[in-house]
Amino acid sequence: MNSTRKRSTPFSHEHSPPRKTRSRNCTFNKEWLHNPEFKSWLAQTPDNNSARCTVCNKTFGVKFDGIDAVKQHAKGKKHIFAMQCKKKSNIIEKFFPTSRSTDQDVVSATELTQVFHAVQHHHSYLSTDCGMKLNAKLFHDSKLSSKMHLGRTKMESLVSNVLAPYAIHRAVDEIKSSGYFALATDASNKGNRKCFPLAVRYFTKTSGLCDRLLDFYEDPDESATGISNHLIQALQALDLSVSNVIAYTADNASVNYGKTCSVYKKLKAIQPNLIQANCNCHVIHNTAKYALKTLSYDVENLVIKVFNEFSCSAKNVTELKACFDFTHQEYHKVLRHVPTRWLSLFAAVERLLLNWQAIKMYFLECGEENCHTVIWSFIKDQEDGMSSTLTLPECYLFFVHSFMAFFSRSIKTLEKDSLTSPELYSVMLDVQKQLQNRREDHFFGFRVNLDLPKLPNEQQRAFKKEALRCFDRALEYLERWFSFEMSPFKSFSCFDFMSIPTLDDITKACEVLQMNERACSEDLYREFCLLKTAMPAIMQMEDLSCSEKWLEFFKNTEAPNLLCIVQAVLAVPCSNAFVERVFSVMNNLWTDERNRLSLPIVKSELCIRYNLMVPCLQFYDMVIKNRHLLKAVRSNSKYTFKKCNSQPIEE
Predict the structure, then answer these.
(1) Phi-psi bin for 469: left (phi > 0), alpha (psi -120 to 50), beta?
(2) Structure pTM?
């Protein structure tokens, strides 16, 4: 039986129901972010049905395929190429801090502290730049080290346009709060360039006694008019008034203190109450030089000639060492004496006496023909044999050593930063009394007084006559340049915290300072009574200096009238040692190895060094809290060629 079948065609759906497709709805799984294969580039999107590749900067769906879609994107050619480029190039985060302000602050504060450290220790900018790159290499696991970059240009900009303005602005604010300050300057050559620093001294009830540097400039004009005009212009540029200058300090050259035309006279025409504060270190030094000119034997020239004999000849030094071995002495290098240095003569003479036996033997072996006449005049009496007692020339040598000893001690006292004007009069009075006592007692030094009677009577008389004349000349010069009776420092001595002053003493000091309105104030007596009550306890604090004792008093006592008087008194300098110290530091940082330094950079480094007197470790703690400094470090305006303005950085 044949049956007829109806074929079904692919297009026939009469008897087959339509197929139902199953749709998947996958969402982003946060566990994918921890997968080592994806975590470096995969990121979640607000839409849970998609994911984002941070390397390709592309968003793709995961709704249907889930993790397979992530794997499929990872196998794509564009993604593989992007990942290869990422591995070859440094990550952008390695060079720049993140958007979080704390990271930016730490990087900025660390960079600025590193610059401050380099300035304080005279490190070159190229050396610091190399050190920063080396740190990034050695400490590669440190994110902070890799984000720090200090090239030479950046360091110069931070020094000149961030740190230096901040240091000067900070000092100026303190000066304005003090009211009174003293000016100090001097001139020094750097090659063929004439440099002048502008230094100030002031006292505040918060910082105490301060010596600061406000400017360091070049000016070939060394006339009184040129110097005074530049000082006035520099003060006006810093918004400081010449009327608040209480004293002017410089060396004792006529251009500074001449009777007719000098810097002091021109400043006094503007500020009639200006005090003449000569450099007393120069006074002491010149007193000794002036007195020693009467001696028949030139000890200063002897020291110079002996040094010249051994300064450039290795052969002479070798022969001298042989003399040391023969006399069983330890070799000590002969010191150089510079006539303009305050303390070099005493140190050179002391070293010469320490080596005297070996040096004397050396020159005796050389003979008169091969020995300088100055040196031979000191040793010719011992040509036939070295004497165990002092000869007449050696008496002069030992006398100069004893004579210079107490001068040297006085200069070291005057050079101290902590020495104040109330203490100056006692120091100068001690020098005067030392000279008077030595003259009256005929004291020429213990060794001289011991061996002098062994010399012939004629030689004794000649030596005593010249030595006593030396004391007379020293007293004459000292009293000419320091008026013990009329000196304002005599009136200031009542503030030295060695004894309780009287009200009359304070009144006399006010008259010297032309502050009569303060002396006539009724409140001054009340403050004077508070001072008398507090002084016995403060005077027992022997470890504190005079200025620190006053600081202790004003921290615990409100005495505005007395504070104004003390600020004026303590602002008067005792010497020009601070300015001389600035020149020494200038020579240390402006060396032949750092010959690319410009004068503005030198000025900036000097102002940073002397106006920011904090250790490097504490400097970081100070900077991290200062929002204005941190903002200035990050700003492009710190670069000279990008600066929009030159406003000082506020604290």
Answers:
(1) alpha
(2) 0.79
